[in-house]
Write a structure and sequence with these properties.
The chain contains 13 helices and 22 strands. It is α+β, with helices and mostly antiparallel strands. The N terminus is likely disordered.
Amino acid sequence: MRLLPLLSLACALPGLAQNPDFTVLDELAQRALRESGTPGAVITVIHHGQVVYEKAFGVTDVETQGRVTPETLFRIGSTTKMFTAAAVLTLVEEGRVDLDKRISTYVQSLPPKIGALTLRQLLSHTAGLGDRGSGHGRHDDSALGDAIRALPPEIVELDPGAVYSYSSLGYWIAGLVLESVTGQPFADAVAERVFRPLGMTRTTFRPLAAMTYPFAQQHEGSAKQAPRVIRPFADDSSTWPGGSLFSSAHELSRFVLAFLQKGKLDGKQALAAGVVSAMSQPHAAIPGSTDHYTYGLVASNDRGVFTLSHGGARVGFGSFIVMAPEQRSGIIVVTNRSGSTLAPVVQKAMELVLPLGPEESQPPAPTTIPEETLKSYTGTYAGGGWRITITRDAGRLVLIFQGKQYPAKPAPGGHFTTEGPLSDFVFVPAPDDSIRYLHVELRTLRKIE
């Protein structure tokens, strides 16, 4: 799901009002900010290739009370991945890299198991990598290469190419390929290949550059806890390619506008059409879902409308971008509270500008599951530093995580739910139909016993 805001555009499409009333977004946004403990946000809506709503809410900093504007810079978390993917794909367009060659072709001194991976695997989250996160670390350009070359071989947890498992680490490695091939620091290479052609003059990975413009401070908060500034400011340059871009809703709209027009912006080809096409094609099925990962985006069928989207959640910030290419429409939201994306506003904005069909009714959850099937699910699954054991008890599954047991209930679509921290999971079969994986919280764990 996604987000919107500015003027109103008359449109006569099935299921849409001729003159959408965007003032309803104002009210929803204000309520969502209060209920989520989010100090500030910007919402932008694009329809038929034009910005039809762009509005800022709240404050950049609860201490100074500076007002948010559409030009305020926010850190956008994993929404960054679409920009890293776009930059890497410009090299493909130029014939300087091959998506299916080992990346050791382009980057020297990599651990052998890392060097054997391909860009196609890295950009589609099928490299089999575990995930790592670090809010704080070094700030120099050499940190990226140093971190990747120091990775242990066991970080490749699954057979490359076998199954989707979300990993920001894969984007860090793809960023190093970009750096090595261009001979530029990662941040400079993306700026030259993506930001400057699109006129995104303030968008940057560099905190010392971002803070020379009006920017939002990072906050944590909730409905029950007043938002507060998080100190110190989180940064680790080795993770920039996966989730650390600073941008504004206003400048992000330039990327969305270009993407919706096959790379054209202001009458010029700002982004190669081949890059847009590659980012629009499904490349990896996401387990337990009809969605697919492309390169840097998630391809979905949202009530009959094809959409491409990505969200971002990092220390102190949240973001979401969704695009509907056929309708040349998009919604952008940026916020300054950890993980906040103002989902109700996104949903309403989509209803205002997209010809969404009726909500699909979910099939009922199975009341019973054959004992033989339950038996095939049992075992221990590991990956990403997690170890999960699935057992049976009186005809039902029990998930054991961090020493605690959580009874699991069958849910539609082959899913199971629990009341614990891992509230939803699904089993993933191998090509021979044996159960080999457990998919939970975007990541896929291998069955080890």
